[in-house]
């Protein structure tokens, strides 16, 4: 553009040497209009090029966002199904654990050996939650969570890991309570008798012999420490259930937002 103006100046100077002042002024006006027109066209061209570049960049970002949304939805669909299943299993475990409390101490002992050993297995069961967090963690660790344009969705996604960490802390508390019961079983009962009615894969995959001791695990019902530990496990299971429900609620909100954002591009 600088060369263009120099050429105009040069032409004007040459024509001033051969023509009158009026003619030179008229010609200068024409050149000026022409120059302004050229400048406007150049500016418009630059703006159009910038706009096209912005459109292309936005299209790329939109495609990347859609990929992220679909991957996140797959992960959180899995997390919802898993956590919902755990809630159902934990509810059944708590029912079984209450059967033990209803037969401790001086209460009538109507539980059969099989029923008690079944409840004993449920007492030691922890339904641990292992979600799919890989894609979300990748977005967060790479600083790419901002690719999600919906601010509310970003906030919900950012809340997921703290919610999951809280669930794991509740699982740890339940594990501590369970270990106390495990110690009592080791010292005063028979794991082999309990495993005889267990449905756990580890037990089913191995052929354990019968216990070499003539012992009735129901003797634990007469132990105050066993009653207290059982009550504590139920308490911890209930606290864990509350954290699971909060997790399900957050996942539900995340999935609703993900579905809305995915549909926008369809």
Mean pLDDT: 86
**What class, by secondary structure content?**
mainly alpha
Parts with pLDDT < 50 across at least 5 consecutive residues: none
Number of strands: 0
User: What spatial form do the alpha-carbon principal axes imply?
Assistant: rod-shaped
Measured as a percent range, the helix fraction is: over 70%
Short synopsis of the structure:
With 266 residues, the protein is an all-alpha fold. It has 8 helices and no strands. The protein folds into 2 domains: 48 residues; 197 residues, no CATH class.
Map the helices and strands:
Layout: H1 2-18, H2 21-101, H3 113-123, H4 134-141, H5 151-188, H6 191-195, H7 201-204, H8 224-264
Helix pairs in contact: 1-2, 2-3, 2-4, 2-8, 5-8
Can you characterise this structure?
By secondary structure, the chain is mostly helical. It folds into two domains: 2-49; 68-264, no CATH class. The protein is 77% helix and 0% strand. It has helices spanning 2-18, 21-101, 113-123, 134-141, 151-188, 191-195, 201-204, 224-264. Helix 2 packs antiparallel against helix 3 (113-123), helix 2 (21-101) packs across helix 4 (134-141) and helix 5 packs antiparallel against helix 8. The longest helix has 81 residues, at 21-101. It starts with a helix and ends with a helix. The mean pLDDT is 86.
Write out key terms for the chains shown.
266 residues; mainly alpha; 2 domains; 8 helices; 77% helix
